[in-house]
Design brief:
- The chain is an alpha+beta fold.
- It contains 13 helices and 34 strands.
- Strands 2, 3, 4, 5, 6, 7, 8, 9 and 10 form a nine-stranded mixed beta sheet that branches.
- A hairpin with an 8-residue loop joins strand 11 and strand 12 (303-308).
- It is globular, with a radius of gyration of 26 Å.
């Protein structure tokens, strides 16, 4: 039955781009996708626990409710008489939930340690260690001496096989951590995260921690440092809200540095900075779901369009490389009335050689014809009603392409739903999304929604889509990324209809699909598919506590937090997900992104924006 009643906890926003260097070649296609959609705020650990093991991510029933009484009674029922669902609920209530509560408490303590180290407060950091600690530490700082690409060098250290720990004063461990924090001239990030936590004697937790340091160097470059530590922690209070780390065994350290900045934030200097609201505000109304790039006025310079409920921005590039917002004078200041923000596409729908503007969003769509005169200021004319584009959707991404080979561009808009006022009917196999739209162009620049006729109406909480000729038969196929485990899938174009061939060809992923990009990561001349999904250490930790038998009837749940997918085209009409062997391509709470050749070496790399609102801890996701 449908799951209802999930809480929507507030939190803070965070996230950093994750750039994964991959060997790739540039592949040019005529599609534009603007996928920077929104995401639910529920904590990953809590949601997956309830979904996987109890079948419903609902709030706890009231103490006097029949449902609560029935669940409490599970503890007293003979296990041999329990149903599989009751057994999983019992496992959650009596084993996994208490263990996760303790793990989260330890995680909050580690957040404090990292915060004190960022502030240079060694004394407060030492409070989380006993007087002496079982230690294994590197004998000297790890040097980044091996040259990679993009001006990046790397160095690693691993604990010698069979190396034993020794008891050292707590100040030695803190000094080691301080050395990590002091490896940069300006510290941007210092995180200590629980990867695994297993129960032990004296209420101890043992497992693996992950340390990540990011900062700027005095020469303008960057410094990254990652470390893996085996730990043993014991609670100091009955409630388990204060822990001390009795074992600190460093097993691996990776240090990377660049001699120059890889990217520089220049939006303010370029004239394209726009301040958005706090993502915790209602409907997150000032966010921007994407951007469109094209030469609007024919001056051979790329311009930029973004859209929000407060209005559009048409940034026209000047000869100096800066931008001037000319949305109001161009006639597109308020293109749509949308509840969050608009998804812009710059596409030449009328085949007159200049880019027109299509805007979708969570509300009415709009279409503007570009009537800019040579050498004149940008000018657009609203063709929404005349073209038949005056339809609506819950859209966070759109794509354009000629689906029927008639020489006219058609438009595909994915459609989600009114989250969080409408929740999915399943957090792992949702089917109650809204219908996607395929606006097929006819004579005179008019459009008609033919998604149902072409078999791509969906209804599966769709986030993103992209066209491309993935099978080399000279027509455009379609890949759609769907959220809530409803199956991101490939549609093959048969000429008059799209056929869902994802499952049978291997280009199918039951996960939280956010974005999709087509490219050629192996340079073999055919298109491969990158899909951004969510990756979560907390979720993987939970799954690691389940036996193969307990996961046997729900194997697809593990995909919900497994990270991004990379489907490699075998050339015979089939695909294989090689994300783990070629990556892994984990990028946290990932969104759009895709293939781009960052270093101009002829091989495409992968960019994956990430981050969202956390739960109760600072770095939940």
């Amino acid at each position: 039955m449908p799951c209802t009643g999930l809480q929507d906890p507030s939190g803070r926003s965070h996230g950093n781009p994750a750039v994964v260097e991959r060997m790739n070649t540039t592949y040019s296609h005529d599609m534009t996708v603007a996928p920077l959609p929104r995401r639910r705020t529920t904590g990953v650990s809590l949601t997956l626990l309830l979904v996987v093991l109890t079948g419903c991510p609902a709030n706890q029933p009231a103490a006097d409710s029949p449902v609560r009484a029935q669940r409490d009674a599970v503890d007293t029922v003979d296990p041999d008489r329990m149903s599989p669902l009751d057994l999983r609920r019992n496992l959650v209530q009596n084993t996994i939930t208490p263990l996760e509560d303790r793990t989260e408490a330890l995680g909050r303590n580690l957040d404090k340690v990292a915060r004190f180290l960022r502030l240079g407060d060694s004394q407060s950091a030492r409070a989380f260690f006993p007087d002496t600690v079982e230690c294994l530490l590197p004998q000297s700082p790890v040097q980044a001496s091996r040259s990679l690409r993009l001006g990046i060098s790397e160095g690693t250290w691993s604990a010698p096989e069979g190396a034993q720990t020794t008891r050292l004063p707590a100040k030695s461990v803190v000094a080691h951590l301080n050395a990590l924090a002091d490896s940069t001239a300006s510290l941007d990030e210092f995180r200590i995260q629980v990867v695994s936590a297993d129960p032990g004697a004296e209420d101890a937790l043992t497992g693996i921690l992950k340390i990540r340091v990011l900062g700027s160097r005095s020469d303008g470059g960057l410094e990254w440092l990652r470390a893996r530590v085996r730990y043993r922690a014991i609670p100091e209070t009955p409630l388990g809200d204060f822990w001390k780390l009795h074992t600190w065994r460093v097993e691996h350290v990776q240090r990377m540095r660049s001699t120059r900045p890889l990217f520089s934030e220049v939006s303010r200097e370029a004239g394209v900075r726009s301040t958005a609201s706090n993502p915790g505000e209602e409907r997150m109304g000032q966010r921007f779901e994407g951007a469109a790039v094209g030469d609007v006025n024919g001056d051979q310079r790329l311009d930029l369009v973004t859209v929000s409920p407060q209005g559009a921005h048409l940034y026209i590039q000047t000869p100096e490389g800066t931008f001037i917002d000319e949305a109001e004078s161009a006639g597109i200041l308020h293109p749509v009335k949308t509840q969050t923000s608009g998804v812009p596409l710059l596409v030449d729908y009328d085949n007159d050689g200049d880019p027109d503007l299509f805007v979708a969003g969570t509300g009415p769509f709009a279409l503007f014809e570009n009537e800019t005169l040579p050498g004149g200021p940008p000018q657009f004319v609203d063709r929404t009603r005349a073209s038949g584009i005056d339809v609506s959707g819950w859209t966070y991404s759109a794509a354009a392409g000629d689906v029927n080979g008639d020489g006219l561009l058609d438009l595909y808009a994915t459609s989600y739903h009114d989250w969080p006022w409408v929740l999915p009917d399943s957090w792992a196999q949702a089917t109650n999304g809204t219908n996607n739209r395929l606006l097929v162009q006819g004579p005179g620049g008019t459009f008609r929604d033919q998604a149902a006729e072409w078999g791509v109406q969906g209804g599966r909480w769709s986030f993103s889509a992209q066209f491309g000729d993935v099978d080399g038969d000279a027509d455009l196929d379609l890949f759609v990324a769907n959220d809530y485990g409803s199956g991101s899938t490939l549609y093959r174009n048969t000429g008059t209809r799209f056929e869902d061939v994802g499952r049978q060809t291997g280009a199918w992923d039951r996960s939280g699909g956010m974005g999709v990009s087509l490219g050629d990561p192996d340079n073999d001349g055919d298109l491969d598919i990158h899909v951004t999904n969510m990756s979560s250490s907390a979720a993987q930790r939970i799954f690691g506590r389940l036996s193969a038998e307990e996961l046997a009837d729900t194997p697809y749940f593990q995909n919900l937090a497994a990270g991004n997918a990379l489907f490699i085209n075998a050339g015979d009409g089939t695909w294989k997900n090689e994300a783990k062997s070629r990556g892994p391509l984990n990028a946290g709470w990932a969104w759009g992104g895709g293939f781009v050749d960052l270093d101009n070496d002829g091989w495409e790399d992968v960019h994956a924006p990430n981050g969202f609102m956390s739960g109760q801890t600072e770095h939940d996701t």
